[in-house]
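Technical annex, item 7. During the second reporting period the consortium partners agreed on a shared format for inverse folding records so that results from different sites could be compared directly. Each record opens with the tokenized structure and is followed by the designed sequence. A conforming record, contributed by the partner at site C, is shown below for reference.
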């Protein structure tokens, strides 16, 4: 675990608050909601050691609506400078893309699982404002 830089109103992790504390818990940070805006957060910066892999970890196997993906790819081919690669995932009528190495999102409450690619409405694909940075300019070659 890497040391997290501390600032005003940050609190270090404390061994005396947990029954079986993780090694180096004092390198972690707790952000209290009464000290700053937000709901409070806990920060731990983990360091991967080469060769270490926990067999209990699984990669994400996202579900994607094939009709939505078809409309997105048509839109992307006509509109974008490139088509982002990764794992596509749909949440209701929203399409996102995850990095290839994303771990499973099972049992997690996720607001935005990745890069928001757009919304599927009335048999058409609508891009979000964030996509404007990769949209082809007028006169650019396809």
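Designed sequence (site C submission):
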């Amino acid at each position: 675990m890497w040391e997290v830089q501390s600032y005003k109103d940050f609190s270090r992790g404390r061994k005396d608050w947990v029954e079986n504390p993780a090694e180096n818990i004092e390198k972690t940070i707790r952000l209290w909601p009464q000290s700053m805006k937000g709901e409070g957060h806990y920060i731990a910066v983990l360091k991967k050691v080469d060769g270490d892999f926990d067999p209990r970890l699984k990669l994400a196997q996202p579900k994607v609506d094939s009709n939505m993906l078809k409309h997105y790819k048509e839109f992307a081919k006509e509109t974008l400078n490139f088509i982002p690669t990764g794992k596509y995932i749909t949440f209701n009528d929203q399409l996102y893309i995850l990095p290839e190495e994303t771990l499973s999102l099972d049992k997690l409450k996720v607001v935005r699982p990745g890069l928001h690619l757009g919304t599927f409405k009335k048999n058409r694909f609508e891009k979000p404002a964030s996509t404007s940075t990769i949209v082809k300019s007028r006169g650019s070659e396809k």
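Confidence is low (pLDDT under 50) at residues 138-142. The chain is about 10% helix and 20% strand. All partners now use this format for quarterly exchanges.
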